[in-house]
Specification:
Elements (H helix, E strand, L loop, with lengths): L1 H14 L3 H5 L70 H22 L24 E3 L2 E6 L2 E7 L5 E4 L2 E2 L2 E6 L12 E4 L5 E2 L12 E3 L6 E2 L11 E4 L5 E2 L22 E4 L5 E2 L16 E3 L6 E2 L12 E3 L6 E2 L12 E3 L6 E2 L12 E4 L5 E2 L12 E4 L9 E3 L12 E3 L4 E4 L12 E3 L6 E2 L12 E3 L6 E2 L11 E4 L5 E2 L22 E4 L5 E2 L16 E3 L6 E2 L12 E3 L6 E2 L11 E4 L4 H8 L4 E3 L5 E12 L4 E4 L2 E4 L6 H10 L4 E7 L2 E7 H4 E8 L7 E5 L2 E2 L3 E12 L7 H7 L4 E11 L3 E5 L7 E11 L3 E11 L9 E12 L6 E12 L2 H11 L2 H15 L4 E2 L10 H19 L13 H14 L11 E12 L2 E12 L12 E7 L4 E7 L4 H19 L8 H16 L7 E3 L2 E3 L14 E8 L2 E6 L5 E6 L2 E4 L4 E6 ...
Parallel strand pairs: 3-6, 4-7, 6-8, 7-9, 8-10, 10-12, 11-13, 13-15, 14-16, 16-18, 17-19, 18-20, 20-22, 21-23, 22-24, 23-25, 24-26, 26-28, 27-29, 28-30, 30-32, 31-33, 33-35, 34-36, 36-38, 37-39, 39-40, 47-55, 57-62, 76-83, 84-91, 86-92, 97-104, 106-113
Antiparallel strand pairs: 1-2, 2-3, 5-6, 41-42, 41-44, 42-43, 44-45, 46-49, 47-48, 49-53, 50-52, 50-54, 51-53, 54-55, 56-60, 57-58, 58-59, 59-60, 61-62, 63-68, 63-70, 64-65, 64-69, 65-66, 67-68, 69-72, 70-71, 71-74, 72-73, 75-78, 77-81, 79-82, 80-81, 82-83, 85-87, 87-88, 89-90, 90-92, 93-94, 94-95, ...
Helix pairs in contact: 1-3, 9-12, 10-12, 10-13, 11-13, 12-13
Length: about 1550
């Protein structure tokens, strides 16, 4: 910009002189030159923007060319390239501009004096373009071309030939031609075609103007700049613009009739082709003046173009249609303005912005439909498009940018009738559609939030306008001059702009000028009527007679209805509580209507406006703050409004509220405009505390299986508001009237009755919480405040099946200091064990119950009765282990007592012997082991689902000393077990201090079980007694509530690995009796607990359920032993059925059919607590002791086991060599034996081993005996194995050694040695030694035999070079910028060397300065080139114009002549760098001075040298120093500071007019 200022100032100053002062005389020696080859002054017709451009040549860059000057035209405006930027910068100043000009003028003067002897004063070179000079006195000649040179380039300044076809050359005298100067070919009448070489980047203004025969011109592909009028007056019809064109110079007079661009005067041009690759169409490209005739009808825009520049096609009056490719996103200002025949436009689908006035006055356009991408339509964009009748905007369904329609964008589109607004329109700026005189109806999109001033003013046909629902801002006079009579204002309008001159005659708001408006409707939902809405000036006539204000309005803004002189009355609802003083200013005949005591009433009274009371019929409920009670006039004042009271209303109660209420908020009934009832809000609204129960939090503690499922329940405490029961208002009414009413809670408590306890989790287990900051609870809120935890003691057992306990919630709120009851709830306890507890309570009172409890106590005390093998923990879960332990303990206790029960101990009693045989048969005590001495033998199995899957565990045992007299129980015996699926076996010991006591309790329990059922009256039943002695005893004792089944010597565990005792389902048994019989039910203590007599049910026992249907009796039992007495009451037969249930699943059903029955005949039957007993246990028995036989029984039993009788092996002797093996096969008889598991044993495993399958392997020489022993019966068979050791040569062995990779260390690959299929062992069968096993190549391993194996053998293997461990690279030859280097590395494994080249270094350099300023004649050595890469050096220094400045081989620069040039530094590597050198008349002064640091601290007598930095470096002004206090710190001429005395001093550094300071502190 500095150059432009200079040019403008120079031109103006010279304009102030008469032409004769400049041109009349020849220059005289010694005088200041009045003319110069750089400045030509003649008659002035205007300055082009290029005349003040930045592109002057290097020798005169600070001068300007001014052409065609006339002193009479000094009033004309001098333009810049962009008219919008023509004004001087605000940051500049006249003084600064003058100083710059005067300096440059002096430079020019000096230059002129030096060269005056060489100048031809008679020649006046013509400059039409400041960027490309015309030929001057220094022009050179090349054929028909005249040219000037600058550095290595040439500018053609004149063509003198007369050829028809001209090719502008790319080189002249080895100079590259880059520019064609202004007017170079001007007025050449011979040229018909021109081809311009691609080296040309700039063509000056009027370059080919007046070439009246020129028909074609090929522009260069590298063209960057094009001057104005360059083909003016030619015959060119088609022109192709290269893609790289970026600048077009314009001739801008700020008069459209005389302003234009490059195509000015090209009257024959019809087609313009823009080359693909162009991104922006340059400003001014096809700008024609309004005074010329144009014929350009076709413009081809490629799809590479993204933006269209300013004025690029302005006033192309013949252009009829346009098609913008979808690549175009912006159209700049005035781009197509004045294109009067433009009727059709195809828009880019990606167009975003349309610039100001870009299509202004395109009077042929009829329809405009904008794509959805458009977001800005700038000011005046389509103003004056007088034929446009339809306008539409496309919706963008994906949202995106909102579109802003700017100032006057469619102003004076006088034919516009239809506008279709999209949902993306955001705002309408001022005058956006003003003067659209054909527009009758407007429906605005709801997306519009702003309509600015005068937006539709002057739309003289407009009758209806629908404002958008989201409208926020409305400008003044927006429908001025329209025919609109009714207007609806949306509820969301919050701002109205006003035109305020502080003169009522000329101040107004949005409805100014709406002379036909009679009705104004405000939409319901509006809360404040905006300021200025209907403000009219006092000078205009208004016709607004009706205004509708909805009940939602609470305030009326300033001047909102000022000067509405036609408004006769207005009804203001009670909802309005605030009216601005000026709201109705300027009223004339206004009457305000509202209810008595309202804000409107008060406003009318204050402003002396007539008021008319409106009586509101019906009842209303109102809430507010009670301010006063006026007994004299019978009113109460609520929030500033007086409400009259009815005759029966008590003013005393109102006064009590006024005096005693803390917040004075009231709710009252307003019936027919009179207060009839009132209550204080704090008496209505009360606090309610609730404990919220969700899906995961129950209100019930559940006691089941002897424990609580949970011992604590947590629930969220919620604070809410409720309405007092004494209030006449409902909660919904209070929520609506007082939504913001708040209760302040300062504390809460929770109280629970025993056995519950309660506390707040957040209060660290306390039942009370106090809040330092009150908790605010609104009427409409519910607020979770804490978590209440309700607990119950784990040892508490409820005395009823269902119980409930109350919990109270207390709160302290408001101004009260005490807690009040604010809620509560019930916590329930469900005792699911209640019936079972009652049954157990009864059972515990019997003899059998007491004995059962004693036995269970011993069994559960510890597990010392049995010593369990730890291996079994791998199979069973903890609950399974308990069941496993319990069963084995009970089984062995019964087995030990088997011959001593009172029912088996009498050897002479046949019945006793029958019971014993049945007991032995049931328990697997075989006849072969029948009481041999004091030894008891037997076998059985346990089947279970284990962690490893389904398994069967086989047991055998041999128990000694099973009598209890003087027995040492620590040596009772062992249980042997095996698990065939896993070849697993082990021993379980029978020992422990509790064994004897447990066995005795078991004996007593078993005998009591039989005694209760089979007394003498019932007879002796061996099978049933045996089942009771064993099955029922074991069932009752096992701790798990579920008991597995034991049949055919297999106990099937029912407990799964994932189950626990607490999760087991309880069992029940159902009985069905079909016959005419009476039923009596007795419990285990033989107490009658229920009966069915003559089909009438009578029961007093909770554990049984009895019912009758027709003649069928149903009884359900749970939790005890029961006995039935069945007495016939008629002749016939009886069907008796037993059903056992496991939970809800039927597990067994026994049916007895056709049991004979007569009147009075009796049967007894037993229903055991346990299940899965022998069928006979359940059989009804008549009075003769005869047992009924079951017709069917669904019980599942395991097959009868078959015992092992003997075992044999297929071989009894075997000879083996070491390493050999064979398999023994056992033969067990009988073949169908149930348990065929065998235990294999070797008496000398060092000689031969045997595995679980009977495979024998020879280990070392010797003899070993292999024995097979059956688990069932412990039968044995053996085989003698003799092992010998042969001598085997190592040469016969198979040896495998793998190859390995080298890693620099000794390699010891694994060696595999086999003898046949036998794998030999290192250091037992052989040894290994290695050699040559470090470096790559062949290595050897030597194998030496041991023992059986003899001799030595060498085996080779390869050490491969597949891996290297390289060292880091070492540079052997360093790289430079000119030569590559070399580097080397070595493998530490194999010592191999590798080499690689190092790339040449990247050239680098650093210049001490990038520009140099010198005085003419001054030299400097401050220019330094440093930072060179290794091997590089400065090859040459070169000045582009040695007449201005020179540089020698050492970099010394000398200023020779005023001007500027460039110096290029070239390195040996080829890298170049350039600096600019400016030579001036005046001495170089210091422009910038810095010193560091700015603060220093020194100790006494210490020194410090300041670091000074100046620019430019070539300044000739010396540096001086001075100290503010030399006694504290002195400074010498070299900038060295010396600390002399404690204190502070300021060192000032001066260079010319610049200074810097350093603060020095001496310590």
């Amino acid at each position: 910009m500095k150059k432009k200022f200079l040019a403008c100032t120079l031109a103006v100053l010279m304009c102030l002189q008469p032409a004769s002062a400049v041109l009349a005389e020849d220059p005289k020696p010694g005088d200041v030159a009045q003319t110069s080859e750089k400045v030509s002054i003649s008659s002035y017709s205007g300055l082009s923007d290029t005349a003040v451009s930045d592109d002057a040549s290097s020798t005169d860059e600070d001068s300007s060319a001014v052409s065609d000057f006339s002193a009479s035209d000094t009033s004309e405006t001098i333009s810049d390239v962009d008219s919008a930027d023509s004004d001087l910068s605000e940051e500049g100043s006249v003084q600064e501009l003058t100083e710059d000009f005067s300096d440059d003028a002096e430079d020019t003067e000096a230059l002129t004096q030096e060269e005056s002897a060489d100048e031809d004063s008679a020649q006046e070179p013509e400059f039409d373009d400041g960027s490309v000079p015309s030929a001057g006195a220094d022009a050179n000649t090349f054929g028909d071309f005249q040219y000037t040179i600058s550095g290595l380039t040439a500018t053609i300044t004149k063509y003198t030939g007369n050829a028809a076809s001209v090719t502008v050359p790319s080189k002249i005298d080895n100079y590259t031609v880059t520019q064609i100067a202004s007017s170079t070919f001007k007025d050449n009448l011979s040229i018909t075609s021109v081809v311009i070489s691609d080296t040309i980047t700039e063509i000056g203004s009027n370059a080919f103007s007046g070439c009246s025969a020129l028909k074609s011109i090929k522009l260069p592909s590298r063209l960057k700049t094009l001057g104005y009028g360059f083909i003016s007056g030619t015959l060119v019809t088609t022109l192709t613009i290269p893609a790289g064109l970026t600048k077009c110079n314009s001739y801008n007079t700020y008069n459209s009739a005389t302003s234009y661009g490059p195509l000015h005067g090209a009257e024959n041009l019809t087609e313009l082709i823009l080359t693909n690759g162009m991104e922006k169409i340059p400003d001014y490209l096809a700008w024609f003046s309004t005074s010329e005739t144009t014929h350009l009808t076709s413009v081809s825009i490629p799809d590479s173009v993204t933006s269209i520049g300013s004025y690029s096609f302005a006033n192309c009056t013949a252009l009829g249609e346009l098609s913008f490719p979808d690549s175009v996103t912006s159209i700049d200002r005035y781009a197509f303005s004045g294109c009067k025949k433009l009727a059709s436009i195809r828009w880019s689908e990606n167009l975003q912005s349309i610039g100001s006035s870009s299509f202004a006055n395109c009077t042929a356009l009829e329809t405009l439909s904008f794509p959805k991408s458009v977001n800005t339509i700038d000011s005046y964009a389509f103003s004056g498009c007088s034929s446009v009748s339809s306008l539409s905007f496309s919706d963008n369904p994906k949202g995106g940018f909102l579109t802003d329609i700017k100032y006057n964008a469619f102003g004076n589109c006088t034919a516009l009738e239809n506008i279709s607004f999209s949902k993306n329109i955001n705002s309408l700026d001022s005058y956006a559609f003003s003067g659209c005189s054909s527009l009758e109806k407007v429906i605005l999109s709801d997306s519009i939030t702003t309509i600015d001033s005068a937006a539709f003013s002057g739309c003289s046909a407009l009758e209806s306008i629908k404002l958008p629902s989201k409208l926020k801002t409305l400008g003044y006079g927006f429908i001025s001059g329209t025919l609109v009579t009714t207007l609806t204002i949306p509820a969301g309008l919050t701002k109205c702009n006003s035109y305020n001159t502080y003169n009522s005659a000329t101040s107004y708001g949005p409805l100014h000028g709406a002379e036909n408006l009679t009705e104004l409707i405000l939409t319901n939902g509006m809360e404040k009527i905006p300021d200025y809405l209907a403000w009219f000036s006092t000078s205009e006539t208004t016709h607004l007679t009706s205004v509708s204000i909805p009940d939602s309005v609470t305030s009326i803004g300033s001047f909102s209805f000022a000067n509405c002189t036609a408004l006769g009355e207005i009804t203001i609802p009670d909802s309005v509580t605030s009216i601005a003083d000026t709201a109705f200013s300027g009223w004339k005949n206004l009457v305000i209507k509202s209810t008595a005591g309202s804000a409107a009433h008060a406003y009318a009274k204050t402003n002396n406006i007539p008021f008319q009371e409106v009586i509101q019929e019906g009842k209303r409920i109102i809430a507010g703050r009670l301010d006063a009670v006026n007994a004299e006039d019978g009113t109460i004042n609520i929030e500033g409004r007086d409400y009259p009271v009815s005759g029966n209303f008590s003013l005393t109660s109102a006064m009590s509220i006024l005096q005693n209420s803390s917040d004075k908020i009231v709710v009252f009934n307003y019936d027919n405009s009179r207060v009839t009832h009132m209550e204080a809000a704090e008496d209505i609204v009360k606090l309610q505390m609730q404990a919220i129960t969700d899906v995961n939090n129950s209100n019930t503690f559940v006691y089941e299986n002897g424990q609580y499922q949970k011992t604590s329940l947590s629930q969220n405490m919620v604070l809410k508001c409720k309405v007092s029961q004494n209030s006449s208002y409902s909660y919904d009414e209070i929520r609506q009237l007082l939504p913001g009413y708040t209760i302040s809670v300062t504390g809460i408590k929770i109280l629970a009755s025993a056995p519950l306890n309660a506390h707040f989790r957040e209060a660290l287990a306390l039942s009370k919480m106090e809040f330092s900051t009150p908790v605010k609870v609104k009427v409409t809120d519910s607020k979770t405040i804490a978590t209440a935890v309700f607990g119950i003691s784990s040892d508490y057992i409820a005395e009823k099946a269902n119980s409930d306990f109350s919990v109270s919630f207390l709160a302290r709120y408001g101004n009260s200091d005490s807690y009040v009851l604010s809620g509560g709830k019930h916590i329930y306890l469900a005792n699911h064990d209640y019936q079972h507890q009652q049954t157990e309570k009864k059972k515990s009172q019997t003899e059998r119950g007491q004995k059962l409890a004693s036995a269970q106590q011993i069994l559960g005390k510890n597990n010392s009765i049995l010593t369990i093998d730890p291996k079994l923990n791998d199979y069973f879960t903890k609950p399974q282990m308990e069941e496993f332990y319990d069963f084995l303990s009970c089984y062995m206790a019964v087995a030990i007592n088997s011959t001593s029960f009172s029912y088996t101990g009498d050897q002479k009693n046949k019945s006793c012997q029958q019971v014993l045989e049945k007991l032995f048969e049931k328990m697997g005590i075989t006849k072969q082991s029948f009481i041999v001495g004091k030894t008891l033998k037997g076998h059985f199995a346990i089947s279970a689902s284990t962690k490893k899957g389904d398994r069967t565990i086989n047991f055998t045992y041999s128990v000694s000393a099973y009598e209890f007299s003087d027995v040492n129980f620590s040596s009772l015996g062992t249980l042997n077990y095996s698990i065939s699926q896993d070849n697993c076996s082990g021993i379980i010991g029978l020992a422990g201090a509790d064994t004897k006591a447990f066995a005795e309790q078991v004996k007593q329990l078993a005998e009591a079980s039989v005694k209760n059922v089979y007394n003498e009256a019932w007879g002796n039943y061996a099978n049933e007694v045996a089942d009771l002695l064993f099955t029922k005893t074991v069932q009752d004792l096992i701790r798990n509530s579920r008991y597995g089944s034991f049949s055919n010597l297999v106990y099937t565990m029912l407990t799964k690995p994932s189950q626990t005792a607490a999760a087991q389902n309880r069992r029940k048994t159902n009985t069905s009796i079909k016959c005419p019989v009476d039923v009596y039910v007795y419990d285990s203590s033989h107490n009658l607990c229920g009966s069915i007599i003559n089909n009438v049910v009578d029961t007093s026992y909770n554990d049984i359920i009895m019912s009758v249907e027709n003649d069928e009796k149903f009884i359900s039992f749970c939790g005890d032993d029961y006995y039935l007495k069945l007495v016939g009451n008629d002749n016939g037969t009886m069907t008796y059925e037993i059903e056992e249930y496991n939970g809800d699943t039927l597990s067994r059903k026994i049916t007895y059919n056709d049991i004979p029955l007569t009147a009075g005949k009796k049967y007894n039957a037993y229903i055991p607590e346990g299940q899965d007993m022998d069928t006979g246990v359940y059989s009804p028995i008549n009075e003769s002791g005869e047992k009924s036989q079951a017709a069917s029984d669904t019980r599942k039993t395991a097959p009868q086991p078959v015992s092992v009788e003997s075992i044999q092996l297929d071989q009894t002797q075997k000879a083996l060599l070491t390493g050999e093996s064979f398999k023994l096969t056992p033969s067990i008889k009988p073949a169908n034996a149930s348990t065929k598991d065998v235990l294999w044993i070797s008496d000398k495993e060092s000689v031969a081993t045997v595995d679980s399958s009977g495979t024998v392997k020879a280990v070392s020489p010797g003899i070993a005996i292999i024995t097979a022993q059956t688990f069932d019966g412990a039968f044995t068979a053996s085989c003698t194995v003799t092992v010998t050791s042969p001598e085997i040569s190592v040469d016969t062995l198979t040896v495998t050694v793998p190859d390995v990779d080298c890693n620099g260390t000794a390699q010891f690959p694994p060696v595999t040695v086999r003898s046949g299929s036998t794998l030999l062992t290192l250091d037992k069968d052989y040894t290994l030694t290695y050699s040559d096993n470090i470096k790559p190549g062949t290595a050897t391993v030597t194998l030496t035999g041991l023992g059986t194996y003899t001799g030595k053998r060498n085996i080779t293997f390869q050490i491969l070079e597949k891996a290297h461990n390289w060292s880091s690279w070492k540079v052997t030859t360093a790289a430079t910028v000119l030569k590559t280097g070399k580097k080397q590395r070595t493998c530490s494994y194999c010592k191999k060397k590798a080499t690689a080249s190092i790339a040449r270094l990247k050239p680098t350099l650093k210049l001490s300065m990038t520009s140099v300023i010198l005085k003419k004649g001054q030299t400097t050595t401050a220019f330094k080139v440093t930072g060179l890469a290794k091997g590089d050096k400065v090859k040459s220094y070169r000045s582009s114009n040695t007449k201005i400045a020179s540089i020698d081989s050492r970099g010394k620069i000398k200023g020779i002549r005023i001007g500027s040039t460039k110096i290029t530094v070239t390195l040996a590597s080829g890298k170049k760098a350039t600096i600019t050198v400016k030579v001036q008349k005046n001495a170089v002064t210091t422009q910038k001075l810095t010193v560091s640091p700015s603060r220093i601290s020194l100790k006494l007598k210490k020194t410090y040298k300041l670091k000074i930095s100046r620019s430019p470096l070539t300044t000739v002004e010396r540096i001086t120093y001075r100290s503010s206090n030399s006694k504290v710190a002195s400074v010498n001429s070299k900038g060295v500071i010396t600390a002399r005395k404690k204190g502070t001093a300021t060192i000032t550094v001066l260079s010319g007019k610049k200074k810097a300071t350093v603060k020095v502190t001496v310590k």
